[in-house]
Amino acid sequence: MQRALIYLMAILGGGAFLFMVKLMHDMTGHMAQMTNHVAVMSTDMGRMRSNMETLVEQVTGIETSVRNMEPLATDVHGIRENVGEMTGVIHKGGEQMQRLNPMQMMEQMMAPGRQHDPPRPRR
Known about the structure:
Layout: H1 2-65, H2 70-99, H3 102-109
Helix pairs in contact: 1-2
């Protein structure tokens, strides 16, 4: 009876170990996918920043062209300032995306009581 209980415990322990290995494997795959998505988003933010800079240049050219038309020049100047502000926001968002670290995000999401230090080697 006792031997059967030991075998049962060993089988359950082995099953739990295999489950944890599978779970860690899946988490690693999901973290890799998330890292790839962050990289793609960062690239897209860079393209948006470039497009916004082009838009600012074009609006500046229009502003220069219509300087003699005072009311229109005022409107175009306002548009140019708004586009410039949008460029700043997109630029800051792009910088944040480049600094984004998925592992750090996961650590921050974990409850403080559930975090643990890695095992230390025995001496």
